[in-house]
Amino acid sequence: MNPIDLPPSPVRLQATSAPNQPEPTAALEELYRGFEQELLVPLWTEIGGLMPPHPRSKAEAHLWRWDRLKQLASEAGHIVPVGRGGERRAIALANPALGGRPYATPTLWAAIQYLMPGEHAPEHRHTQHAFRFIVEGEGVWTVVGGDPVRMSRGDFLPQAGWNWHAHHNAATEPMAWIDGLDIPFSYYTESQFFEHGRDEITAAEQTTPDRSRSERLWGHPGLRPLSQPADTPGTPLLAYRWEDTDRALSDQLALEEEGHVGVISPGHAAVRFTHPGTGRDVLPTIRCEMHRVRAGSTTRSWREVGSSVYQIFEGTGKVSVGSKEWRVQRGDMLVVPSWVSFQARCDDDAALDLFRFSDAPIFEALHQHRVQIDAE
Ligand code: GTQ
Ligand code: FE2
Description:
There is one protein chain. The chain is an alpha+beta fold. The chain has helices at about 25-35, 45-50, 65-80, 185-190, 215-220, 240-255, 360-365; strands at about 60-65, 90, 110-115, 120-125, 130-135, 140-145, 145-150, 155-160, 165-170, 175-180, 195, 270, 285-295, 300-305, 310-315, 315-320, 325-330, 335, 340-345, 350-360, 370-375. The strands form five sheets. It has a six-stranded antiparallel sheet. Strands 2-3-10-5-8 form a five-stranded antiparallel sheet, covered by helices on one side. The protein has a five-stranded antiparallel sheet with strand order 7-6-9-4-11, with no helix packed on it. The longest helix is centred in the middle third of the chain and has 16 residues, at about 240-255. It is globular and about 75 Å long. Fe (ii) ion binds near residues 130 and 165. 2,5-dihydroxybenzoic acid binds next to β3 and β10.
C-alpha cells in the first residue's frame, strides 16, 4: 500500500462516548451503519483531523548525513547501471513518517544522483519541475534543450518542466549532486506526463563549454534580451553560478558591518534564485535560496506553511527543527515540515552557508502561505 494515499478501506464509523460526539445509542449505531452502507462520513467524527487549527504535518524533521549519502551513491555507481528504464542513478531521501515512500516531504523529492566517468543519463522530459545543486565536484554537463550546461561546486541549475534533458560525465572522476523535484506533489495531484527522448545525444551536445547558451543570453544582471519572451513559467537561465551567489551574500554581510541595511536579521544574509524575466521564483512550484550565517550569529526562529529541504553547503553549526537539534557539516541534508520552526546557528570561525528549497510558490499562488517569526 502507498501510505501517503488514502487506504483502500470501507467507511468504518464507531459510536463512542468521546467529548463533542453524540450519545452512543442504538439509534446512533443504526444511523452509522446507514452511513457506512451509502459511503457517507459525517463531519463531526472527522473535524479534528481534517480541519486542525494550524498545519500538523505528517512529515517529520529528519537529517541525512552527506558521508553516508555519498558512500551509498558511490556503491550504487559500481553496482547499478544507468540507462533506459531506471533513467537516472538517483537515490531519494525518504521521510521516516511518510511510510517508506521516496518523498522528503509531502510535496518535494530530494535525491543524490551519481554518474561515473564517461557515463550518460539518457534524454527524457517530464512535467515535474526540477533543479540540481552541486555541493562538491565537477565534470558533469546537463544538456537541457540541446544546450550543455556545466555543473560545478556551488552552482544552482533550475530546469522547468517539459524541457528535454540528459546528463553526461565528461571527466575522469565520478560526480555526485542533488536533485530537487516536485514529484510527490505531481503524483498526489495526478497531473504528471513523461516522455523518452533520443537514446544518444549529438557530438555537439556532448561538448563541454564553460558557459551555456542560456547564460550567454540571460546571465547578465538586470539586462533582458529583447529577442526573447520574458514571462515564461520557469526561468530561462539554466545556471546560477557560485561566484555570483557568494559575492551577493558577502556583500550583504559587508554592508551590515558598514552600518547599512543588508541582512534579514543580524548576521543572517539570504538571497533567492529568481527568474530574470519576471523576478519571481525560478520554478512554478519550487523556491530556492542560499542563506549565510556569520560566524557567531544565530538566525531568527521561524515557521511557515509548506515544507523545506536544506543542504549544508559550507561550514559547521547547529540547526534546530521543532524539538530536534543537530550539529551539521558540509553536505548534510535535512527536512523542515510545514509549520515547524527552524533556526540555525554558526558557532564556527567561518560562516555557515545553507542551500534551501521549498514548495512556497504553490501556497503563495493559492494565497495560503503564512510565515510566523517566533518570539525570541
Ligand atoms: O536527473 O532527470 O532525481 O528525471 C528524479 C527524476 C533526477 C533527472 C531525479 C529525474 C531526474
Ligand atoms: Fe528528469
